Amino acid sequence: MDIEELLPQQPEGGKAEQKKSPLVSLEKDLELYADSLKEVAIEIKVEGISANPIFIAHQHTVSIGEVILDRKELNTEWTIQVSTLEEFVQKGIINPEKKTLFLKSYKKPEDYMCVFVIVPEGANFIYYPYKAKG
Length: 134
Fold this sequence. Notes:
By secondary structure, the protein is α+β, with helices and mostly antiparallel strands. The chain is 34% helix and 24% strand. Mean pLDDT is 85; it is low at 1-18.
């Protein structure tokens, strides 16, 4: 799933409210955090903790994973926590029967950050590419 798919859609035949999506600020924060997140994802794989790191982006308090980037400390919009596929299955966020399906869509953690975005309207997974150094 791409970030655009989570953005509010224009209603058909009507004018959309000019409400700024929280995902605009998320994208800005993910750009800022990208190098740190990539380092953490690779470390989780190398240390054998999990082959499937998952980052959680939120603006509240969540009880999964560990805080690695706190929005209050960094003066940003989003707090990022790190977790794993195994913890998501254990906590029932990913149904064990859907684990195989999830793994089919999971992108290489060296190239993409898997982010579980939590907003008041709900939550969803996105894959955000790390920018190539150029």
